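Lab notebook, bench 4. Still working through the backlog of constructs that have no structural model yet. Next entry is a single chain of 81 residues. Request: give me the structure tokens for it.
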Amino acid sequence: MSSFDFPDDLLRAQRAWYTAYRQLAQEENPSQTTVLRRTLQRLSVRIATHPYWATIPGRAPAARMALKQETWAPDAAKARR
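Model written out:
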């Protein structure tokens, strides 16, 4: 667990990003890859512009890495809560 107290919606968005990323890596249907790429773009914007980053000035790069590490594992949602 990290030393950052991430909001639940930010954690969900990052987990959803990784889920879509994993699906895209395995997808062979071109129309589905387009949907997944658009999903990744929307989630990337949601994550990057989340108001949480403004609450930790100067620590955002470390927090972004901590968010990624905390949510990377497929079973990270179970481990967190």
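Notes after review: The chain has a mean pLDDT of 90. The two ends are 11 Å apart (CA to CA). Flag for follow-up if needed.
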